[in-house]
Design a protein that fits this description.
Blueprint: H1 2-33, H2 39-68, H3 72-102, H4 111-133
Helix pairs in contact: 1-2, 1-3, 2-3, 3-4
């Protein structure tokens, strides 16, 4: 149980960092980049920020669930969900930020990989819930 609490604490810190970065990146886009980005690229950037925020909060939820989920099987699914949420932010939002700033549209090919990572993460959360209902 101690190892699970330690892992939950680490994921909680990752969620806090991701959330803070979402605030900073969003503010940077709204105030620092707005004069330099075209309207379509600003919209791309803002989409990255929006999904970044949502999934940073999802990771926060997952880390809290790790503290209260008693089933080891559920813990494994929650760990997988956490990894997928983090990968999704890096790949999906990161590619959108990069594409907006550089205007290299080919970076958009990375974006769906991040989206799939999130879908897998949400599925892992579903599986954790299923394991918790069978206690």
């Amino acid at each position: 149980m101690l190892a699970a609490r330690c892992l939950a604490g680490h994921w909680l810190m990752v969620a806090a960092v991701l959330s803070g970065l979402a605030v900073a990146i969003g503010a940077f886009g709204a105030h620092g980049l707005k004069p330099y980005l075209s309207e379509p690229m600003l919209a791309v950037y803002q989409t990255g920020v929006q999904y970044h925020f949502v999934h940073a909060l999802a990771l926060l939820l997952v880390s809290i669930l790790m503290l209260v989920a008693p089933a080891p099987d559920a813990q494994r699914w929650l760990q997988r969900a956490a990894v997928c949420m983090l990968l999704g932010v890096v790949l999906f939002s990161g590619s959108l930020y990069s594409m907006a700033i550089t205007e290299l549209r080919m970076l958009g090919m990375i974006t769906p990989v991040g989206g799939v990572s999130w879908l897998v993460g949400w599925t892992c959360l579903l599986m954790a819930g299923k394991r918790l209902t069978h206690l």
